Amino acid sequence: MTVYRSNELFRASGLTLNSNTDHITAGVVNAVTGRAGVIDISRISNGLLVVNVANAPSGTNPTLTVLVDCADAFGNWVLVSNAAGISGSSIGTSGFTYGNLTSGYQLTDTARIRWTVGGTGSPSFTGVSLSLYGRP
User: Which pTM value belongs to this model?
Assistant: First the structure.
């Protein structure tokens, strides 16, 4: 049995991030809730997103920029993290990074994690784990 911290809102692992998709889709199950879909952020005002890339990326000069969006009242996705990536820059190797989400960014109770992949030669990042934590 795996025990999650009560302030953990989202966890997924073993992901492949590439340019074929650009956000956590309905097919990715949140290991915290057991459900797929958007992330409920109604309980938090501040957050921390942790990204771990287990394997060396493929392609030439690969870059991975991980971002967080919230939905506005009209259902549009609005960027609420640093536009350069959650840590302020892109990831180009295996390893981990993290970034804070501070109060004032919660437009509705719904968030998603999204990414952009750059480089040439079909860049891809495999073995990626994403965890989102929050504080009231």
Answer: 0.87
